[in-house]
Structures are given as structure tokens and as C-alpha cells.
Amino acid sequence: MTKISKDGAPLLSVRNLCVSIPALGGSVVNFVDMISFDLTVGSVTAMVGRSGSGKTLTAQAVMGLLHRPGPTVVGGEIIFDGVDLLALTDQQLQSRRGKDLSMIFQDPATHFDPVMSVGRQIAEPLRQHLRLSAREAYLGAEDLLNEVGFANPRQVARAFSHELSGGQQQRAMIAAAIAAKPRLLIADEPTSALDVTIQRQIIDLLENLRHRYNLTILLISHDLTLVGNFASDVIVMRNGSIVEQGNARTILTSPNSDYARSMVDVQRRLAAGKRASARSATPRGVKSSTEFPVLGGKNLKKTYLRRLGWFRKSYFTAVSVPALNVYKGETVGVVGESGAGKSTLAKLLVRLLEPSEGTIQISGRDVSQLTQRQFRPLRPLIQMIFQNPAGALNPDQTVREILMEPMRIHRIGADETERKILVAAMIERVGLSPAVLSRRPEQFSGGERQRIAIARCLTLRPSIIVCDECVSALDIQLQLQILDLLLDLQEESGIGYVFISHDLDAVRYMSDDIIVLKGGKVVEEGRAQAVFRNPRSSYAAELFASQHRRTLTCDR
């Protein structure tokens, strides 16, 4: 073990770090190339940059999570509190993870054990590092769930991860990461799946922990507004290298590099809602009596049985929507806090869940009573872009196979040659090179995997797409690129969208109409521009006010 002098040293010092990934032909590619930075005790440093710039690989290298044959550290030093982490054995590193350094992962769904309750998983680091009994650790897990914003921590502790919404999974992951009170917390997109009110709660929580325990935080985020309100320093990465680093206020207001300047400009453009203003300024014309919405839902309800013991039970209504109509070439936005029923509604519309009550129509045809076999020929007409790209892509297939398989099933394209041409064109449209078609999902960042999922959806030429947090994993520049792509496709072919997101800027940019959900029920709906300007319900007003309080400045 290499011991470094601690006198005047930062808590974490990264020097000339290189991370390589094996490529075809036995060559290697440096995806992190000779980067260096320091984290001082008690500081909050943000790492920003486009998806695939090396942010998450850097974090995983610090945590000692990179191993052959995948991405591997091939050079440099990672000094934590005077100790070179790269010189430690796996067992020595394991004893430090959770206690000295911990990580909030970008994709919580893939980091929870699906057959173990959430409470037991959060209790594990308490037992391992703090030597608590099983009961003490479990009660501690409930306290942590309460601390990260759950109103019903006991119920959540008993639940399994698949029973939680994406935002709820993220909060539970944060509870697990902070359980043993680590000295360094790496937060990889910790609020990407959360609505603005919960974002504020989580950031306030992390800030309180930082003050209470002198916690050092490395925040990885594509949300420059969040970075400006939370971080004191910023590291800007591009293509595996650091292009700029320094004071957050300076970089976010007067960046030196063209790359950082373009990121700030894009954030401001998206917040202005330029495309939405132009679209929603013109009211939709009166529909003819014979025109059907491309997607219609009426009296949609999803109710679950909840057992309270051996002999007691109750019913829980996850979502109840009286009416939802999407016309050709239009977008209906759906917003609400985490757990409001947004993702449940999405799954009902594409029949991944069967409604307890109500009907679903596609171009005027009632499809809610069709069997899955009868519905299969209609499935290309309505597609879904999922919130979790890692769980939506087959890890054993290449990108080319992932995109071509549904095309073969639904006979899109005359032959394999034409399908290959279509796939190459579509992968370019979502901002990736055709060269990636031979790679597998594990070789991509979260944002790149989301773009692949979007491309797969678009290859089937649907008339309606349900977008469930489809840009939450993307950096701000790619968010705007994908949103503009979706709107361009809509203008070209009349695709209708149900756009579900906690990002109100993105919803305002995309939507013609809007539905606001709370506790599974519709509390407000109407033309997007009118609802955003003058919400009638107190809930919608407070939700929008939370977004308005976020500004691209540095408050620290």
C-alpha cells in the first residue's frame, strides 16, 4: 500500500488518470485521458459534460469498480486521504466502500436486488460498517427513508424495488449511499429521475449532510441549474479530457472554452421554451366530427390489491384519468411529482399494464378488449421510450441487432439490406455514429443508451409515442437535440406524443396540452401555455413555482 503525506493534501487527488476500453482488433481506446483534479474536504465539486465524456467512468475508477475485460484504469493515481486507492486489493477497497467513499448510481433500478426488500438492502451497510444488529439496522433504514423524503418509510422499507416509481427508487438509492455516513460521496445524476420539489429536498438533504459531517461531494450532472445552485467548483469534460475547471460562478456566467459556453447557451434556450411558445401560441383548430384522436383514453383506472395482514386487504388506485386525447401532430405533456402515477399511465396506454377500468382507442378503434395476440399487429403504431434505458436494451445483442429485431418482427423494410440502411440512418439521427452498431449496451454511457432506445422506437414508424422521461439521462445539449428531433419528426410525419417528464422546461418546450397529476388523479389540464402562465390549482402553481425558483446562477 502506497502511503502519501497528508500535510495540506486534499481529501481526493486524481493525477493523470487514464481509463481504456478494449476495441475491435485488440486495440484500446482511452475514454478518460490524462485527467487531474483535487477535491478539498467539505467541498461540492460538479463534473459536467456531454454523455460519453467520461464522467461516470471517472467516478467508477475512484470507487474501484472498473475491471477487465471492460473499462480499466491503465495509468495515473487516485489518492484518497493519503492512500493510493489503485494500490489496494479488492478486499481492502471493499472495506472502504460505503464507509469512506460511497456512490449514488445513475440508474437505481439495476443496483437494487429484485428479490430483497428495499429496507433490508439499505440496512446492509449499517450492519457491515456500523456493526448494528439486524433490528437496529432495519429501523435505521426506515429513518433514512424518512430523511430522504418518504412520508411512509415503513411501507417503502417492506416494498421491493420494482414496486417503486423511478423517482422513489432514486431516493431509496440515496438513502443506501449515505447510510454509513461516508467522507466522500459521489453522486452520479442523483436527481435525474426526480421532480423539481423532490430535487430541492434531495439537494437540501445533501447540503445538510455536508455541513453536519463535513462531507465532500463530487456531483455528476447534466443539469447546469442544479450545478449552479449547489456546487462551488466545476469540472467540464469533453471526450475524456478536462477542457475547463474552476469556480462554478465564473464558469457558468463567463466560461472560457467554447464548449462550456455552448452548454450554458443551450440551457438558457431550453428554459425559454422557444419551440413550445411558437407551437402553443396558435390554438388547435376545431376538429371535424369524423376525426379521431390517434390515441384516446377514457375513464382509465389502475387499482391494486394491498394486503394488510392475513385477513385484511384494501385497494389502492394508482392512477385515475377521466380523459386523455392525443391528435395527429400534437403533444400532450404529463407532469406531477414522483409517484404521481405518470409511469403507470404510460404503461396503461401502451398496454404493458391492463386497465382495471376504462377504454383505450388507437385511431378510433377500441383496443382495450383485444388479446395481446390480437393487439400485436397494432403494436408498431404505439411505441414507448422508457425511463430506464439499461433495462430496456438486451445486453447480449449488438446495437444493430437491437434495432433490427423489431423491424424484422413487424416487417419494416423490404429486406436485410434496406433494414441496415434504415438503422444506420436512424442511429445518426439520434446523434450517434454508425460505427457504434457493432457494440453492446454495456459499452455506452447512460445517455448514449437512451439515444439507442429512442432510435429503436423510431425504426417502427409509429403514429403515437409515449415518452416516459425519455431525456432524463441526457446532458443538456443532447436533451435539446433529442427534443428538436422529436418535434422535427412530428412536423414531418404527424406523430403524436404523450410526453411524461418531471422536467417542466422540457414539457413546456414540447407540449400543446398538459395534464397535471397528483396522487394518480388529474388536478389540472388544458392548453400548455395557459396552464403554465395561469395555473388554477394550488398544486400546479406550487409545482411550477419550484421550477421558476431555479435559475442558472451560483448561489453558493
How would you describe this structure to a colleague?
By secondary structure, the chain is of the alpha/beta class. The chain has 2 domains: 12-272, 3-Layer(aba) Sandwich (Rossmann fold), CATH 3.40.50; 277-288 and 329-354 and 365-548, P-loop containing nucleotide triphosphate hydrolases (Rossmann fold). The strands form 4 sheets. A 6-stranded mixed sheet has the order 6-7-8-3-9-10, sandwiched between helices. It has a 6-stranded mixed sheet with strand order 16-17-18-13-19-20, with helices on both faces. Strands 2-1-4-5 form a 4-stranded antiparallel sheet, covered by helices on one side. Strand 17 (464-468), helix 18 (476-493) and strand 18 form a beta-alpha-beta unit. The two termini are 37 Å apart.
Key phrases:
6-stranded mixed sheet; Rossmann fold; 20 strands; 2 domains; 21 helices; disordered N terminus; single chain; alpha/beta; 556 residues; globular
Low-confidence stretches: 1-7, 280-289
- Rg (CA only): 24 Å
Q: Percent helix among the residues?
A: 25-40%
Q: How many DSSP-defined strands?
A: 20
How many domains, as an integer? 2
Mean pLDDT: 87
The percentage of residues in β strands lies in 15-25%
Which strands sit side by side, in order, in the main sheet?
Answer: 6-7-8-3-9-10
- CATH superfamily membership of the largest domain, which one? P-loop containing nucleotide triphosphate hydrolases
Protein structure class: alpha/beta
What overall geometry do the principal axes of the alpha carbons give? globular
Quick structural summary:
The protein is 38% helix and 24% strand. β14 and β15 (365-366) form a beta hairpin.
